[in-house]
What we know:
Layout: E1 16-22, E2 25-33, E3 41-45, H1 57-62, E4 67-71, H2 73-78, E5 82-87, E6 99-106, E7 112-119, H3 126-131, E8 134-135, H4 140-143, E9 146-147, E10 150-151, H5 153-161, H6 169-180
Parallel strand pairs: 4-10, 6-9
Antiparallel strand pairs: 1-2, 1-5, 2-3, 3-4, 6-7, 7-8
Amino acid sequence: MKAPMKRNSKKARTGDIVEIETPAGLAYVQYTHETRPKFGELVRVLPGSYENRPTDFVELARHRELYFIFYFLNHSLRAGHAEVVSNQPIPEWAKDPPLMRLAVAWDEFHRVVRWRLIGAASDLTLDDLIGAPLVTKLTTEQKKLSIREIWPHKAMIRELARGWTPERAEELQHQDLMEKKGHVTQV
Length: 187
């Protein structure tokens, strides 16, 4: 078993497990794929929230991720907002860039009405977008696909703390909209 490591790196390495402090506890992501700088770094969000740092990162890395998300990981590391605590092998199922859903059209209520299903490795060229399947009604399985977004550190903290998942994205977006408009919502 690899011992947990503490490395004040300015740039993440593939396989790094990164600790992020949230109001709900400590959360962990694993850096899986190098991408173009404008997309941030692709990470898989590992399950669980912890009061104290886990001692077994080998086991944590073996868990299936909740979702993948592009995150400004290297910026967060340089700013001291996140910390590399271990480096573990990426599980077989997570080695290839995942298929994700990308919002491409919204209605007047800010609900997504059209999605493109596109790989995380895509550069999002016009040809890539045109060639990607267009979906207007997501299946149960498609609702579980990671959403292709880029999160800065503050967004990552917020979404980790409130238990965001792709399946809950629409519900939480509606909740955010109601709060912005001054309506109180019950969860």
